[in-house]
Design a protein that fits this description.
four-stranded parallel sheet, single chain, five-stranded parallel sheet, binds phosphoric acid mono(formamide)ester
């Protein structure tokens, strides 16, 4: 199979097929097995630009750690106020400038469509590191890889996606990505934070979906729960947040009602939706999930640059 990621932009996970994702996961497996020295020769002399106009810990640092691990370098914008955007420069001019410095760009922006806009104006490949409430495709790639590694398969899984399904962009990428693997998905949220209709329409016939208000209704039926934070910063009114805060909490008592091998995933950061007592249980997989972020992103960058280790 020809490398489906070479020179491509990574804007929506919907731009990639099941075969494409499986190709990425095979590359991720290879990356995991390489020694430090073998990794270092994958991207020497290449530069990754991380342009982050919203806060991030995992996405930015894992992309940067991934690039350094495969022998490349990084340059970063970590907040707009340290750049010439503060002087009135627009996103167009910022991207057109950075493209002459780097080989790949990762863009995180509060506006939906920002990553696709950037991809349209630059010849360099752009990775969407999170665009408003729209998508976060590389998060879903690592989420699905985590399911593959820790559950042993992706196909036919039963997964509960819990929390802020209205504003959580990781949810949309995950739902669209999982739809390639015949999932049964239980959407669990407070009524005010139900998944947007656009996803229900898009996923019709591609995934078995049901909507619930209470996790206890379905926890005994699922392989994994994917918990999300209420996106307080995206709610239009502080009163909206007051209505929904604390409306779902994952604790050990709740987990005791699920399967013994139930996986608890979370894209992180978390607020109060998973109690810290869960961290000590074998069900807690969210920190391993974050570790896979570096591996999957190293694999993705390597493929985008068409740098692959020998078989
Ligand atoms: N999961 C995720 O996007 O985390 P950060 O916001 O820390 O990058």
């Amino acid at each position: 199979m020809i490398n489906p990621f070479y020179g491509r932009d990574i804007i929506s996970i919907r731009d990639f097929s099941k075969l494409d994702l499986e190709y990425l996961f095979r590359m991720s497996d290879k990356i995991q097995k390489l020694s430090h020295d073998e990794l270092k020769v994958l991207a020497p002399g290449k530069l990754l630009g991380t342009l982050f106009f919203e806060p991030s810990t995992r996405t930015r640092l894992s992309f940067e750690a991934a690039m350094l691990s495969i022998g490349g370098g990084t340059v970063s914008i970590v907040e707009a106020r340290t750049t010439s955007i503060e002087k009135g420069e627009n996103l167009n001019d910022t991207v057109k400038t950075v493209e002459s410095y780097v080989d790949i760009m990762v863009l995180r922006h509060h506006m939906e469509g920002a990553a696709r806009f950037a991809a349209q104006i630059t010849q360099k490949p752009v990775i969407n590191g999170g665009s408003g409430i729209e998508e976060h495709p590389t998060q879903a790639m690592l989420d699905i890889y985590t399911l593959l590694k820790l559950r042993g398969r992706i196909t036919n899984l039963k997964i509960a996606v819990i929390g802020d399904l209205k504003y959580g962009r990781t949810v949309y990428s995950l739902l669209y990505g999982l739809a390639n693997f015949n999932p049964q998905i239980f959407l669990v949220s407070p009524p005010d934070l139900m998944v947007r209709d656009e996803a229900l329409i898009d996923l019709e016939g591609k995934a078995k979906l049901s909507q619930h208000e209470n996790i206890e209704e379905i926890i005994q039926d699922v392989d994994a729960i994917y918990v999300t934070r209420i996106q307080k910063e995206r709610l239009p009114d502080p009163l909206e947040y007051e209505k929904v805060k604390g409306s779902y909490v994952i604790d050990n008592k709740l987990l005791s009602k699920g399967r013994e091998d139930l996986m608890v995933l979370h894209p992180l950061p978390r607020a109060t939706e998973i109690k810290s007592e869960v961290d000590k249980t074998p069900n807690a997989k969210y920190f391993i999930q974050a570790q896979y972020g570096k591996i999957v992103r190293a694999a993705l960058i390597s493929l985008m640059l068409n740098e692959q280790p020998p078989n």
